[in-house]
Amino acid sequence: MLLTLAITYPTLAVSNNNLIELDYQDQTKEKDRLKEKVKVKVTGKVSDAISGLPGVYITIKDSSVATVTDLEGNFTIEVIKGQTLVFSMMGFRSKSIIYTYQTKLNIELKQETSTLDEVVINAGYYSVKDRERTGSISRVTAKDIEIQPINNPLQALQGRTPGVNITDLTGIPGGGVDIEIRGQNFMGTKTTGRNNPFYVVDGVPFISGALGLNNGNLSSTLFNNNISPLNAINPNDIESIEILKDADATAIYGSRGANGVVLITTKKGYQSKTSFTVGSSTSFSKVPKFLDMLSTQQYIKMREEAYSNANRPIPANAFDINGAWDKNRYTNWQKELIGDTALAQEFSFGVRGGNEFSNFNINYSHNENTTVFPTDKGYKRNSALLSYNYKSKDRKLSINSSTTYSNQSNNLPTSDLTKQALTLAPNAPALYNEDGNINWQDGTWMNPMAELNSSYQNKTSTIILNSNISYEILKNLYTKVNVGYTTNQFEERRIIPHTIFNPASNPTSESSESYLSNENHNSFIIEPQLTYIISKDKHLINSLIGFSYQQTDVETLRFTAKNFTSNAFIKNMGAAKEKTVYPNAKNQYKYASIFARLNYSYNSKYFLNLTARRDGSSRFGDDYKFGNFGALGAAWIFSKEDFAKNISWLSFGKLRMSYGLAGSDNIGDYAYLDTYLVGAVYNNIPTLKPTALFNPKYKWEKTKKFEVATELSFLKDRLNTTIAFYNNRSSDQLVGLTLPTTTGFNSITANSPAVVENQGWEFSLFSQNIRNRDFSWSTNFNISFPKNRLVSYPGLEEGTQSSFYVIGQPLNIIKLYKYEGLNPETGDFIFKDYNQDGKITSNDKKHITSLAPKFFGGIQNTITYKNLSLDFLFYFVKKDNYNINMYYSNPGAGILNLPSVMNDYHSSTNPNATYMPANIANPSNTLLKPYMESTATISDASYIRLKNVALSYNLKVPKLKMESVKLYLQGQNLWTITSYKAMDPEFVSFGGVPPLRTISFGAQLTF
């Protein structure tokens, strides 16, 4: 028993000890389990091998918790032991770690072998990695847009996108911007808008034509009836702008892709903590260069010689030289009338945030711009952007919506004062009397300040709504519906009160006039789509099929009112004694199409992209309502081949090619029908006036596009280049064919077999010159060599079009007299007499000059040092254009000042002069018109311009809980190198404000 007890006791003892030990371990394990469920606040920093990385997304796997690193790469996140942290950023390899108990994490991300693997390009109905695209797509992102003090998004593209020619049409805010993508495809003037690209904002088609075309010339003296609809979009709300150029990229838009496609994507929310942004900026703008005009002494001498040479006495109405005006007075009228500093102020407020499943972005902006005219009135815009994105936790359902709203107004004089600034005599009277009233100098002149009593006003209200819903029905099978609505209400008003006239003539409100025009656009689109992806081994097929239906309604109204009892009623058209109501126009445009895309890739090395679209448009007759369009694109990443893998300096190499057919229905509504206007009233019944003939054979214009290109990267992507050659041929040109006058019409719009060709080369180069911890320097360069020509035009010589076009020459040509100098004996202009009949007539107008650019491009440098960043862009163009001789007047022939170069006029003491003698009744005046239409009016208008400079500094203020404070200084159109003698080589319209030189500074706070 004792033995048994002895044996049992230790056993019991050991057993009890084990129980105690096991209980302790269980308690410890339970504590550990509880500890593992506790969230721990973890801080850290994400960097590459050089410096901290801002904007790295940090998510906890299988949860909705996420954050993003700040400007220095720092982050804070709450995490539980055992959870997986995922660090990801475009251009870097993602990294995952399982969290243990560290309270401080230092993460290093490695750069991808090629950033092309990560950059995703918006191609419209689909997105594609930059590395894998088969089409030609240029892209400008928010980084380049935000550094420019601009009002219109198109201005951000100048000098930054190869093949895209951008021209500012005015220096007045709220005006027009001309864009041409790879040349002019279709015959016709710029004002028709037939060569405008197709605009898409967040998946919604937007107005492509200029506003104000149907307003009865209300804005003709200010904007030449060319007001860009894209003024409605705040450039700072844009995330990216993609330009689709070749057939592969544009054919999915079918009949609307011939002139290229401009895709604008606004900013969205992203997964991060909620952040607020407040920004403010102030800009100062001036006319960069005044035209050098005659001084008072030069002007008076010329005018007196003009009468002397004509053997005529100085008449009573020659106020500038007969003593009515002070002959010693001098005024720089450019300084007086367009010499003010235009002030622009902008304020913005935004809030952004969310997680990976639900995020939002809200931004509001208000800006005001004055002009260089002597008035504090100008342009105003209020804009708001709201976007919301949702994704279900199983990631099958996705909803994206955006709303863009803007309200614009412009209040200006009824005419551009630049023309008066360039023509007023230098000794014209003072603008104001000593009592401050407008000086009419006894009725001897039209005081330009009286123009400020009149006003031109426009108001634009724009709403763009977009929503798309996508759902994964089955694995790799997705359905999507894109819905959009756009409304644009445009109103123009011109007020001309009697107070603009000389009070000596006793004008009353019966002389007052009021003009009003309304133009309303409403458009709706719905696009259901189906996408299916097949992946097996090295094969990948991505297919898309969709349907599109769009309806656009446009209504225009126009009124004129005169003879008011009081100017108090001048805006009330019904209060006028004389009223004219013009026939209103209501146009409806319907558009339906089915489109498909099939993309095949093998081993991520060979790519084939097939696109097809069948469109139906209400703009064509029953026999030609539908058109078929399509394209084939192919790409080969040869750097993945065995023969290229051993080339150490080659990081990436791709060849791509595309061919296809795109079209255009951008030809206006109802053009194929018999059309009528309401005419005069007969027996109290309005009559109808025929305006066009029916043409049942009216059909689509087509453009065949071909491109071949190579994309290369060297030295681990430090150097990237693209070289592209394109050839586009546009046929079935819609032109006015000449008709016998017995038909009652001069012409009928019909398809001509004329063929227009655009071909050219485009080069782009990106270089990462220096990159280390504190300092980096990169360079972007692009240059384009476009060539446009009319290949064929059967029957050209028999029609009136032969005055404008020549086979083998560009569309943008002018026929001129060949100027051969000045006869030193007579002072007469000499022109080449082509037909040798001894006379200079229109038959001698044989010299052909093209105004199209020979080449254009830009070079951009970005330099950063720690938190300091400097970006500057040079833009250059090689071209010819009109010079100041286009506006030539006989020296001394009228009370008009002239450019100082015209002081070199012929006389007995100056026989080898440039211009004809001063003479108010020159017997050779018949030579003046040929001179203004001769080669003497064309000169080199090439230039290099420092287009944009931006200097910014970012800092953190943790004590004030500021995530970032950004201070910046920006400049636009700062410096120009050119031999061009007029005001501006980009803007050559006489009497208009050129693009202004702008200095802007501001601050942006994010907290």
Structure description:
The chain is mostly beta strands and 1007 residues long. The chain has three domains: 1-31; 38-111, Carboxypeptidase-like, regulatory domain (Immunoglobulin-like); 137-268 and 276-295 and 330-686 and 709-812 and 851-883 and 941-1006, Maltoporin, Chain A (Beta Barrel). Helix content is 8%, strand content 47%. The protein has nine helices and 49 strands. The longest helix is centred in the N-terminal third of the chain and has 35 residues, at 2-36. Mean pLDDT is 88; it is low at 1-24.
Summarize the SSE layout with pairings:
Blueprint: H1 2-36, E1 40-47, E2 57-60, E3 66-68, E4 74-79, E5 84-88, E6 95-98, E7 104-108, E8 120-122, E9 127-129, E10 137-141, H2 142-145, E11 164-168, E12 177-181, E13 198-201, E14 204-206, H3 220-223, E15 238-244, H4 247-250, E16 261-266, E17 272-286, H5 296-309, H6 333-338, E18 342-354, E19 358-370, E20 378-391, E21 397-412, H7 418-423, E22 455-474, E23 477-496, E24 513-536, E25 539-562, E26 578-581, E27 585-602, E28 606-617, E29 626-636, H8 642-645, E30 650-664, E31 675-682, E32 685-692, E33 701-714, E34 719-731, E35 733-738, E36 747-752, E37 755-771, E38 775-792, E39 813-816, E40 819-822, E41 829-831, E42 847-850, E43 855-865, E44 868-878, E45 880-882, H9 928-932, E46 938-940, E47 943-957, E48 962-978, E49 997-1006
Parallel strand pairs: 1-7, 13-16
Antiparallel strand pairs: 1-4, 2-3, 2-5, 5-6, 8-9, 10-15, 11-12, 13-14, 15-16, 17-18, 17-49, 18-19, 19-20, 20-21, 21-22, 22-23, 23-24, 24-25, 25-26, 25-27, 27-28, 28-29, 29-30, 30-33, 31-32, 33-34, 34-37, 35-36, 37-38, 38-43, 39-42, 40-41, 43-44, 44-47, 45-46, 47-48, 48-49
